[in-house]
Amino acid sequence: MTIEGTALVVRGDNVDTDVMYPGAFLNIEDPEAMAPHLFEGFDPSLRERLTDGTILVVGENFGIGSSREHVPIAMKANGVRGVVGRSFARIFFRNCMNLGLAAVACPEAVEVAHDGSAIVIDPSGAVEVDGRRFAVPAAPALLTELAEAGGLVAWTERELRAR
């Protein structure tokens, strides 16, 4: 299942989940109600530029800080289909996988992408930016299944029903 979208570049390295989704909003559980608070403590103008089909292009160690699932939940609620970065904080990456949001480390793609670039994430092992193809490790089968199911909870429910 390839993921296609339009790039929105998030400038900076070590962008912290604590500023992407500040603690004052952690009591919100509904994804649609979370959406207006994404990037609140970082750069709220980014939120206004999100569209259904955005693929965020990010720097090094994106998603450091607290293990806030709120960030990828709010991203998905804002129409973000994936994140292509130089690298990710381990917990942020795992939260994306658990929630069915594609996150791919591909420094070469980040280097050439700009706002509005056409991006294709191919889980079989590539990221394309404006037609330029960059090899990445293929996604493990389980991560592909999680993404196709919509995340870990949906995948688990499906697996339990199948038994």
Keywords:
alpha/beta; Aconitase, domain 4; globular; single chain; 163 residues
Number of domains: 1
By secondary-structure content and strand pairing, the structural class works out as alpha/beta
Which range does the strand content fall in? 15-25%
Uncertain parts: none
CATH level-1 class: Alpha Beta
Termini gap: 25 Å
Say which CATH homologous superfamily is assigned.
Aconitase, domain 4
* Rg calculated over all Cα atoms: 15 Å
**What is the averaged pLDDT score?**
95
Number of strands: 7
- What share of residues is helical? 25-40%
CATH topology annotation: Aconitase, domain 4
- Strand order in the largest sheet: 4-3-2-1-5-6-7
Could you characterize the architecture of this molecule?
With 163 residues, this protein is an alpha/beta fold. It has a single domain, classed as Aconitase, domain 4. The protein is 35% helix and 21% strand. The chain contains eight helices and seven strands; from the N terminus they run E-H-H-H-E-H-E-H-E-H-E-E-E-H-H. It has a seven-stranded mixed sheet with strand order 4-3-2-1-5-6-7. The mean pLDDT is 95.
